[in-house]
Each structure stands twice: as C-alpha cells, then as structure tokens.
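Please go through the sequence and fold tokens given here and tell me how the chain folds. Record follows.
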Amino acid sequence: MAKTRTQIRDFSRSLPMSLLRAREAVMSHFRPSLNHFGITEQQWRVLRALSAVDTIEIMALAERTFLLPPSLSRILRDLDERGLILRRISEIDLRRGLVSISARGRDLIAKAGVHSEAIYLQIAERYGADQLARLQDMLRDLEAALAAPIETGVFQEHGGKKGGKKGGKAVSRRSAVNGRRAP
C-alpha cells in the first residue's frame, strides 16, 4: 500500500531551515575568532548584550539573548569564574539577580570586536552593504510581523502538546519557560 505524502512545502523552502542555514553560513565565519578568544557563541552573545547596558536583571538578559534560564545560569557561572562579568543581588528585591560586564569583559569585547568588525566588512563586501542593511531591516520586519501568535486551530484541536496553552492560545516553548512571549 502506497503511503500518501502530506502536502507540505519542500524542506528546502522551509523558513525555519532557511534561517538556520543562513545563520550557520554567517556563524561559520565568526566561530574561528570566538575560538581564538576562548569563548562560545552563547558566551559572546551574553557579553555583547551586557556591553550595551550598565546592569541588567538575569531574566531580562535571558530574554534579550534568547537563552533559556538554565543555560544562561551555566554561562554566567563560567563567565563569572573567568572574571568577565560581575554578579550581585538586587537591593530592591533580594530574589532578583543582576549582572554587568566587568572591565576584563569589556577588554575582551574590545579585542574580539576588532576581529568581529573585520568579518562584518568581509560579509558586506561579499553580499553588499546595502543588501545586508536591507536584510537586517527585513528580518526586524519579519520579527515584528510574527510577534503575535498565528491562529491555526491546530493546537486547540490537539490539546497544545508542544509548549502548551495559555489562556486558550498556543504558546512557544520559550514562552512557557519564561512565562511570557519572547521579544
């Protein structure tokens, strides 16, 4: 008996896979530099986010860097042990942890940032600076357009097993973990 294939777009045209392929193409150029400085992609993401603020609450950092809190906790421990960040407890709410980048972390950002900017220049040369700027604008527009859930009825029909339901609406795994929709 022949199996009937589900009518679904070709795998090569899957938006999530296209975005993953593009991310991998980009990151393959940054990884050697990160390895040279002894940091992982996720550690770099955290340090970059911290370099843009004075201090941030740990849960806000998790949302900003798209890292799940348990993963971020491990990353912060490693960065703290290396003296790249400073951690403290909020004076207003003792349950909340605050984190900031240390002078040593800023020094690492400055050194690795030179390599990072050189890579960005090469990417802009290959792809085109204007096209790269348009791509970044388009990705921001895509993110904004998809900020609200897409109602398909699928999750309501099947009990919302992936990520669960919140107020009758499907929520992502990230939302279920963080208690709110990802930015």
